[in-house]
Amino acid sequence: MIIELGHYALVLALATALVQAIVPIAGARRGDRALMELASSAALVCALLVAFSFAVLTFAYVTSDFSVRNVWENSHSLKPLIYKISGVWGNHEGSMLLWLLILVFFSALVALFGRNLPETLKATVLAVQAWIAAAFALFILLTSNPFARLIPAPGEGKDLNPVLQDVGLAIHPPLLYLGYVGFSVCFSFAIAALIEGRIDAAWARWVRPWTLAAWTFLTAGIAMGSYWAYYELGWGGWWFWDPVENASFMPWLAGTALLHSALVMEKREALKIWTVLLAIMTFSLSLLGTFLVRSGVLTSVHAFATDPTRGIFILAILVVFIGGAFSLFALRASRLKSGGLFAPISREGALVLNNLILTTATATVLTGTLYPLVLEALTGEKISVGAPFFNMTFGLLMLPLLCAVPFGPLLAWKRGDFTGVAQRLFVAAAVGLVVAAVYYYVMNGGPVLALLGIALGVFLIVGALTDLVLRSGIGKVAGSIAWKRLSGLPRSAFGTALAHAGLGVTLIGIVAVTAFETETVVEMKPGMTVDAGGYTLRFDGMRQGRGPNYTEETGHFTVSRGGVAVTEIWSSKRLYTARRMPTTEAGIRTFGLSQLYVSLGDPMTDGGIVVRVWWKPLILCIWGGALIMMAGGIVSLSDRRLRVGAPTRAKRPARLALGAAE
Amino acid sequence: MIRLLLALVLCLTTVVSALAVNPDEVLADPALEVRARAISAKLRCMVCQNQSIDDSNAELAKDLRVLVRERLTNGDTDEAVIAYVVSRYGEFVLLKPRFEAKTVILWGMPVILLICGGVALVLAARRRSAGTPGAPLSDKEKEELDKLLRS
């Protein structure tokens, strides 16, 4: 009965969304307040209905109600509770419901906190959100109903895919969806601006926090997914340029560009049309990502929706929304007046460069991802576009951008002084080169390019800090005054510095692992040793074990350095009983920012076992940098100016305090 | 997104939990082995999704790895090895497609976009700076201005 209620709530949510999609627009046209205000209540009701529906599905998973087909297909009564819950979105139907839940949740946030938005803008934004929600609710109800019953109910479920039974899965998809779907709000704002034919700095002030929030979640989701793949797949790779990864990376790149162009628009009233276009493109790429993953078009084995009706349905959603948005843009963009003059060498100029390169990079990833599909459809010829292509093109594009990053925040608005900024960044560049030289000495040599990469990473970090140092006058004025100035700086300045420094940290991790990683593949018998990264691993033997829903064989290794035992590593291979599916649980030990990664291969006939040992220098920098970038996003989000729900001017006391600090 | 974990999972019937290069495949000559690894990273495992033969543990990938090493020990250059594999398995096997007629758009996209974007930006900047002083004076206006100045 409860299951049917959940299903019914979803139908009601669709009906509510349809009302929310039409009535407020009519209200905004006629200037009818009552009709416009309906948008907010409808958004809240819709969110509650979808939340109820989602809760019902979760309940079915937690109680292992195998009369629900979806639960039977993806759950098992012996599974730990956390994986019963995370299993809700570990499958097609459930993950689409989660997508919808997050969408209506964001609509509800706009409804709740958008009190100081112009009435018509708010009504239109919520209506656009409802168009998307209605399309996806319809998609779920017609093609991917998670509440379908199975009669008679089977006694036991088929279990969740074992690789997905991991804390990573519990966190990764929701984070990624929060990012993907968060951009829907920017999209709705862009569409509303086009419909209204009006756009101003207040609009950018509203869009920027949403972009920041979505970007922060997407950064977290991608980093989480990357780390998950790293420890779960068992061969130590952390990025594969897989189409599914690209599907999440493209909105991130476009979102990063949007973040920066919205800045120009808010501060200088320039790049308006471009910002609207980017907002549309970013969410379009999120929709495209959903389509690529859900439709199975990638001929990829991991697209779990192989049913073509689903693919066609999502394709229709894609065509209607993206096509509609771009047509509307073509029709109405000329109405938006652009303003704000600036010289090529200026903060705006740097941000435009950022946008040019990031958009090109997005387009490159998009072309690379879709090219094989399109070519095969058109000519029947099959080609592959894989990591070597992306590493080369994307790497070449990123190089000038990374070099330019520290310059951006230091350049003045309107007209900047390039030589002056270059002089101020001299210290940062020098520090970068010195660190690279030291690294060269410590590593006993290394490829020049890799060392320059390390230097560039350090340049990014120190360059980001340089901005804070210069703005607070550290070293030029007395310490107490510098401290006052530093604490008086807007939060967004710290956000920028953190995000840019995080980028540098990630770069260092990538370069170090790519250039200085070592890999050893050996057949080992108990008592044998192998060296990696200055440590010696002794294989002590295998041990059988048993978990709640799997059996495992674990290899034990003693790690020593200079003859002294420092730690031990267990590395296992599991066999999940319900699906008879093996997984590798790599043994990972962290030393500072570097890691030893041990993974077991096949047993050999003579009693030995294949062991792979990697030394991954500074690998934690890759994800640590992402964490710092996220921190930058959060700090920037907490800036009074941008706080969601408080886009009004800062209150007087705060401004006085700021004035006093300056 | 569930990313390529699932790829791996569904590959698992052929894969079990073995991983890529096995000790028995490794060449005795370390320089040759390094070349073999570099080449392997550029060749696709045909039965997997988006995995190089260096990363994959499928039977076919193993066969190809052994083949690459055989050719290298016979004294082939890197290019010759790759050309040989392509002649047997088609271009699908290359993870980095060659630059040719059918991949012009693929390879050209970044360059074209950068150039077009750059040109558009320069034009826009020119138009903006040229546009601000207002339209040039017409002949009649000039005459009037001259008159005013002379008087």
Tell me what you see in this structure:
The complex is a heterodimer of chains A (662) and B (151). Chain A is α+β, with helices and mostly antiparallel strands and 662 residues long. Chain A has helices spanning 2-30, 33-62, 69-74, 81-86, 92-113, 119-143, 167-196, 201-233, 243-268, 272-295, 308-332, 347-379, 387-404, 407-410, 418-424, 426-442, 448-472, 479-488, 491-516, 620-637, 652-661; strands at residues 518-524, 529-532, 535-546, 550-561, 564-576, 581-585, 587-591, 594-603, 609-616. In chain A, the strands form 2 sheets. Chain A has a 5-stranded antiparallel β-sheet. Chain A has a 4-stranded antiparallel β-sheet with strand order 1-9-8-7. In chain A, helix 1 runs antiparallel to helix 6, helix 5 (92-113) packs across helix 7 and helix 12 (347-379) runs antiparallel to helix 13. The relative contact order of chain A is 0.08. The model of chain A is unreliable at 300-305 and 644-662 (pLDDT under 50). With 151 residues, chain B is mainly alpha-helical. Helices cover 59% and strands 0% of the residues of chain B. The radius of gyration of chain B is 30 Å and the shape is rod-shaped. Chain B starts with a helix and ends with a helix. At the A-B interface, helix 7, helix 8, helix 9, helix 12 and helix 13 of A face helix 1 and helix 5 of B.
Secondary-structure map with pairings?
The complex is a heterodimer of chains A (662) and B (151).
Chain A: H1 2-30, H2 33-62, H3 69-74, H4 81-86, H5 92-113, H6 119-143, H7 167-196, H8 201-233, H9 243-268, H10 272-295, H11 308-332, H12 347-379, H13 387-404, H14 407-410, H15 418-424, H16 426-442, H17 448-472, H18 479-488, H19 491-516, E1 518-524, E2 529-532, E3 535-546, E4 550-561, E5 564-576, E6 581-585, E7 587-591, E8 594-603, E9 609-616, H20 620-637, H21 652-661
Chain B: H1 5-15, H2 30-40, H3 59-73, H4 78-89, H5 104-131, H6 139-150
Helix pairs in contact in B: 2-3, 3-4
